[in-house]
Amino acid sequence: MAEAKKKATKKAEVAEAELVVETAAVAEAPQEEVVAEEAKEVKATAKAGKRSEKGLKEAEEKQAKEERKAHASEAKEALEESKPKPTAKPARPRLERQGKKFRDSAKLVEKGKAYKLEEAVDLALKTSPVKFDATVELHVNLAVDPRQADQNIRDNLVLPAGSGKKVKIAVFDDAAVDGVEIAGVDNVTKALEAGNLNFDILIATPAQMPKLGKFARVLGPRGLMPNPKSGTVTTDVAKAVAEAKAGRVEYRVDSTGIVHLGVGKASFTKAQLLENLQAVLASVKNNKPASVKGAYIKTVHLTTTMGPSILVDANSVG
Q1: What CATH number should be reported for the domain holding residue 280?
Q2: Are residues 172 and 235 in the same domain?
Q3: One domain, residues 178 and 277
Q4: Sign for the pseudo-dihedral over CA of 193, 196, 198, 200
Q5: CATH number of the domain that 198 lies in?
Q6: pLDDT tens digits, the chain, 318 residues: what are they?
Q7: Do 141 and 8 share a structural domain?
């Protein structure tokens, strides 16, 4: 009996030991799974790419660099804000930035005052600050839109007292003409082919104009291409040369609707300049488009080369 009891006790101890082992195995199973997952992660980081050890290290270094840059930028901004800002000097008036001679001349012109044409001519001659024979310039602002064909004002005329400018004339024709620098189709063609544009006006006959077509890109931008409207395409070459020598000028509104034209020299007398000015202004008024209603001439200014601008009373010029 005692032997049976001893066997039963031994079986109970074995069963209890097996239960303990099973319980421990169950408790350790999740830990083994965690270890397995960690092993997988370690294995994943070992591969090449962004999740590799090298990639992760580079990403950390990059993030640290960006943080340093952001910190440096903030520090720089803080330093800039702490510095006293320099006060900007106001720009000097345009008149103060001009030369001494110009400033002295400008003192003779009353700012904002509109002078009569005769007074403006007197003042222009007095305010020329240069030693050479300056050109007297007329600038007329017209109430036109140059984009409209009928408002693209353009004309030519012979100044009664001449322009005061010595012009070099070339004639693209074989007819004999006196007083020109270059004459003859062959001579002018050779000069154009060589790029020698040593002339101010080119006159041609209608029959010879087709031969100048290949030089249009050279002559056009320089304003030397003959044109019937400017009187440089004509059958009467001798007359055209005489008018050019006498002071034929051409004017045309620019893109803003302003006519710019030299009307003589500072060496001209007041009477000569007035005669030229009246002729130009009369031509401008005669070319008033029918589509322009109301005031045609907006403003008129007179000046000399490098001299101050003088406002002319528009009513005094009609």
Answers
A1: 3.30.190.20
A2: yes
A3: no
A4: positive
A5: 3.40.50.790
A6: 555 555 556 665 655 655 544 555 545 545 555 445 554 554 455 566 667 777 788 888 888 888 888 888 888 888 777 777 777 777 777 766 777 887 888 888 888 889 999 999 999 999 888 888 899 999 999 999 889 888 888 888 889 988 888 888 889 888 878 878 888 888 888 888 888 888 888 988 888 888 888 888 888 888 888 888 888 888 888 888 888 888 888 888 998 999 999 999 999 999 999 999 999 999 999 999 988 888 889 999 999 988 888 999 888 776
A7: no
Structural tokens at position 4: 């049976």
Do residue 215 and residue 67 come from a single domain?
A: no
Instruction: Give the other-Cβ count within 10 Å of 103's Cβ.
Output: 14
Count of domains forming the chain: 4
> Are 173 and 241 in a shared domain?
yes
Q: Give the burial class of 49: count Cβ atoms within 10 A of its Cβ; 0-12 exposed, 13-18 middle, 19 or more buried.
A: exposed
**Is 236 part of a structural domain of the chain?**
yes
Strands (E), the chain: 135-142, 154-158, 169-172, 182-183, 201-204, 248-252, 258-265, 297-304, 310-312
- This prediction's pTM: 0.64
Beta bridge partners of 249: 157
Question: Does the residue 70 lie in any domain?
Answer: yes
**One domain for residues 174 and 212:** yes
Contacts of 148 (CB under 8 A, 6+ apart): 289, 291
Q: Can you tell me the distance from the alpha carbon of 109 to that of 112, in angstroms, rounded to the nearest whole number?
A: 9
CA–CA distance, 81 with 65 (Å, rounded to integer): 24
- 98 domain-assigned: no
Q: Which domain holds residue 121?
A: 113-164+248-318
With H, G, I as helix, E, B as strand and everything else as coil, classify residue 23. Answer: helix
Contact by Cβ (8 Å): 291, 139 = no
